[in-house]
């Protein structure tokens, strides 16, 4: 999605604009620092900040003894947060003339890219994993890849590491060059997958677990990934009993306060509760490559837990953009955003 912006800011109160921009960029930077540290702590077994603070005895903590190497790794994790905060401040000071609307447009572009990449990832993973499951059930897989690889593909961690993750990376590459979000196609694929189940069951008396898994996999992606896009396009349902009667500034105040006090905290709650430990609701399935107990079904259940993280990340970035664009309205910044409809500004879906 492309957004045309004017980067002019009002000369009065420039320090307030810088503070608002710094807040928005800092929120996004700290979020990415949190995700990096989550990976280092639970996938690479780095000590993590909680153990580090407990070891240091800060805030009354009395944690277990840590080796010098572990302390060094923990300091690196602290430095990641410091770098994220310093980077946000540095970007604001580097371009002090940049307007709030311009930063809001950057947030929208970043959220849209993450959503596009997630869409292409689930599309590629869904088709490939369903095909592998079908060939494995019908006994054809060994003819194509050999007995050794067939056995390996029956292991969830192998299929995740060497099939799913590479396809997700391909999705990020495709999303960089293809600006279409593709939700119409994803919704159509959900309908087609469900129709395939009906036709196969009632006409050919054929049904396998992977067929239902594919529908749930794509439907969950459609439901969660489209949320940030709907926020971009003002597509979410509001309780407009009072809101519709507000002035433009009144609406901007509602959106600024709502984004800050409701939107961002909800996203942080999802991330912190879902990723606070190895047994958390997001980390646990991802770490164990969790699968369903339906025999030869698809091995994508762990990715569906990751959908929650994608939802929280994309929504948080978009809430920051929403906050900045409405703050620009309150600040009287010139240059309204000129956004056209997706069909007019992106390749046909």
Q: How are the SSEs ordered, and which strands pair?
A:
Blueprint: H1 14-42, H2 49-56, H3 68-94, H4 100-138, H5 141-145, H6 147-153, H7 156-177, H8 183-202, H9 209-232, H10 240-243, H11 248-274, H12 283-288, H13 301-331, H14 342-345
Question: If you had to describe this structure to a student in words, what would you say it looks like?
Answer:
This protein has 349 residues and is an all-alpha fold. It has two domains: 87 residues, no CATH class; 246 residues, no CATH class. 72% of the residues lie in helices and 0% in strands. Helix 1 packs antiparallel against helix 13, helix 8 runs antiparallel to helix 9 and helix 9 packs parallel to helix 13. The longest helix has 39 residues. It is globular, with a radius of gyration of 23 Å. The N terminus and C terminus are likely disordered.
What labels describe this entry?
single chain, 349 residues, 2 domains, 72% helix, disordered N terminus
């Amino acid at each position: 999605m492309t957004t045309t912006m004017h980067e002019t800011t009002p000369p009065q109160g420039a320090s307030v604009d810088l503070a608002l921009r710094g807040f928005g960029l800092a929120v996004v930077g700290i979020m990415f620092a949190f995700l990096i540290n989550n990976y280092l702590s639970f996938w690479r077994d780095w000590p993590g900040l909680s153990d580090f603070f407990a070891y240091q005895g800060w805030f009354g903590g009395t944690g277990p003894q840590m080796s010098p190497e572990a302390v060094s790794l923990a300091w690196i994790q602290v430095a990641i947060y410091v770098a994220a905060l310093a980077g946000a401040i540095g970007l604001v000071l580097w371009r002090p003339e940049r307007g709030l609307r311009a930063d809001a447009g950057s947030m929208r572009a970043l959220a849209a890219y993450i959503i596009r990449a997630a869409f292409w990832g689930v599309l590629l993973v869904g088709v490939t994993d369903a095909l592998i499951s079908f060939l494995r059930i019908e006994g054809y897989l060994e003819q194509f890849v050999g007995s050794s690889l067939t056995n390996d593909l029956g292991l969830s961690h192998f299929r995740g590491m060497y099939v799913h993750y590479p396809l997700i990376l391909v999705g990020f590459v495709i999303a960089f060059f293809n600006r279409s979000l593709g939700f119409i196609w994803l919704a159509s694929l959900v309908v087609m997958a469900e129709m395939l189940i009906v036709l196969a069951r009632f006409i050919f008396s054929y049904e396998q677990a992977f067929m239902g898994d594919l529908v749930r996999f794509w439907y969950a992606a459609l439901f969660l990934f489209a949320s940030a896009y709907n926020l971009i396009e003002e597509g979410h349902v509001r309780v407009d009993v009072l809101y519709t009667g507000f002035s433009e500034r009144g609406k901007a105040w509602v959106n600024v306060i709502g984004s800050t006090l409701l939107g961002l905290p909800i996203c942080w709650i999802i991330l912190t509760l879902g990723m606070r430990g190895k047994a958390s609701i997001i980390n646990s399935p991802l770490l164990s490559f969790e699968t369903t107990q339906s025999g030869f079904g698809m091995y994508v259940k762990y990715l569906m837990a990751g959908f929650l993280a994608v939802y929280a990340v994309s929504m948080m970035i978009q809430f920051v953009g929403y906050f900045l664009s409405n703050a620009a309205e309150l600040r009287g910044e010139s240059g309204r955003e000129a956004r056209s409809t997706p069909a007019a500004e992106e390749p046909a879906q």
